[in-house]
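Feature request, filed as a ticket because there's no other form

It would be nice if the structure record came with a short human-readable summary line next to the tokens. Right now we just get the raw output. Example of a typical job, pasted below so the devs can see what we mean:
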Amino acid sequence: DTFARTLRSAFLNSAILGLMNRGDREDALELIKQLVRTKLDSAVTHCLARRLGLSDVDLVPAERIENMMRRRPQHASRFEDMHHREIGVLDALQLGAKPGDAQAARAVMEDFILQAGLRVSGGEKSCILDNTLQRHQPKLVLEYGAYVGYTTTWIALQVKAWGGKVVSLEMDPINAAVSRNVIEFCGLSDIARVQLGHSDDSADLILEEYGKGSVHLVFMDQ
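Raw output as currently delivered:
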């Protein structure tokens, strides 16, 4: 159940991120320890643990996992069937890159994306985006559609140079979980974040948080 495990871990890591963003450190720590005890932790889980001051010595998996603690799905759900390529991005990262090395992680992502046939912004679009970012140096970029976090991490790496931020809107909860884990794996969670929800609603939430006129660049890949 590789895809099922990866997906469950991604969602739980996203929950930990949410707790951390809310300032709920104790609950975030407890959830991390639960993931480790039930052997649902990933490289992203350990990235989050280090941000909270835990070391690998503090994270000890249980010798025996009770069935009630971790129920193993007997069959792949339609979520894994429909998103197996997107979920595969996380597996590829954890096998081929070191957490925190965003450039190496993106190289692994590029190879996997080409092999899996995922549709992301590249070629001429990426050149236009690069030139626009460097020319205007926006402080806040709003991206419509995070997908697997490929473009989000690239924008984050660019705007990091001048203290910018990027918020990506994503309505698919699985893609949102994958992209949040990708961003954390790359060590860019302090620069980039994913807002779950339809753009009609989530764009307003961003404006409420940052203020009117705060978005300096909008990127929509169609």
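Something like this underneath would help us a lot:
The first strand starts at residue 140 and ends at 144.
The chain has a mean pLDDT of 89.
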